[in-house]
Amino acid sequence: MRQFKTKGIILREVYVGESDKILKIFTKLKGKISVSAKGSRKNKSPLAAGSQLFSYSDFLIYSGRNYNIIQQIDIIKTFHGIGKDIIKLTYASYFLELLDGVTEEEETNEELLLLILKTLSVLEKSNRNPRLISVIYELRLMSLIGYMPQVLECVNCGSKEKIHHFNIKMGGVLCDDCMHEDYYAYKLSQSGWYTLKYIIHSDLSKLFSFDLDEFILKELEIISEKYLSYHIEKDFQTLEFIKTNLMDLQ
After folding, report:
1. For the whole model, what pTM was predicted?
2. In this structure, what CATH number is given to the domain that contains residue 49?
3. Which letter, b or e, does each residue of 217-234 get, where b requires 16 or more Cβ atoms within 10 Å of its Cβ?
4. What is the pLDDT of residue 169?
């Protein structure tokens, strides 16, 4: 058994017995790992506060051959403000569920950790539309897990002129000359194209520094949803809840 320390954010929790939890944590050092937080559901447990969903902390972990056990948690940030707003809380839960769903155990990706932390911070502190935050997060996440779309030029011929569609199967924008009646192609305005380029290639510190009108937002929502669905092929329960219950409230 050996000990290691790493920063990470809690993605999921499962209650075990009367007082324990199994946590899924996305860490800087090892990517996604499962750990046991023994006694963390007891009120006086030193692990109680830091073993909650959304908690970003320094974790001291003992690692055995088949299991990990948390020894100590030093909280860095809890994103406490998200829990005060049901819409923000639901979107934040979706962001964690998506990250959990597209990653495998012990695959390190520090850029993904930085992305989820930045996304939750913007969601918590700003009044920016959660739908826009979600689109940006989805597209940037896809780029970081190996599905970066070609948005700088036509994915088929390389042209940078007359770009008016996005093909989810080919994974990029299409010019008018390469566009055919295609189930996988979706309309893309010039403003939508510019926004796609910004989302995929801008610095993380400036990623959420813009707003969109409803037309462009809806356009990108459709592209993001279809692109993610085609390549990931998983259902996300929180996303379905958002579509069914929250869209009319935003």
Report:
1. 0.94
2. 2.40.50.140
3. bebbbbbbbebbeebbee
4. 94
Quote the tokens at residue 83: 């829990």
Helix axes 190-201, 214-232, angle to 10 degrees: 60
Instruction: Identify whether the C-beta of residue 93 lies closer than 8 Å to the C-beta of residue 238.
Output: yes
77-103: pLDDT as tens digits: 999 999 999 999 999 999 999 999 999
Q: Which residues are registered as beta bridge partners of 228?
A: none
Residue 103, SS3 per DSSP: coil
- Tens digits of residue pLDDT in 138-197: 999 999 999 999 999 999 999 999 999 999 999 999 999 998 767 789 999 999 999 999
d(CA 170, CA 181): 14
Matching residue, tokens 């940030």: 77
Contact 151, 172 (CB under 8 A): yes
Last residue of a domain, one of 51, 78, 105: 78
Domain around 32? 2-78
For residue 88 the two structure tokens come to: 């923000």
Count Cβ neighbours within 10 Å for each residue of 116-144 and write b for 16 or more, e otherwise. bbbbbbbbbeeeeebbbbbbbbbbbbbbe
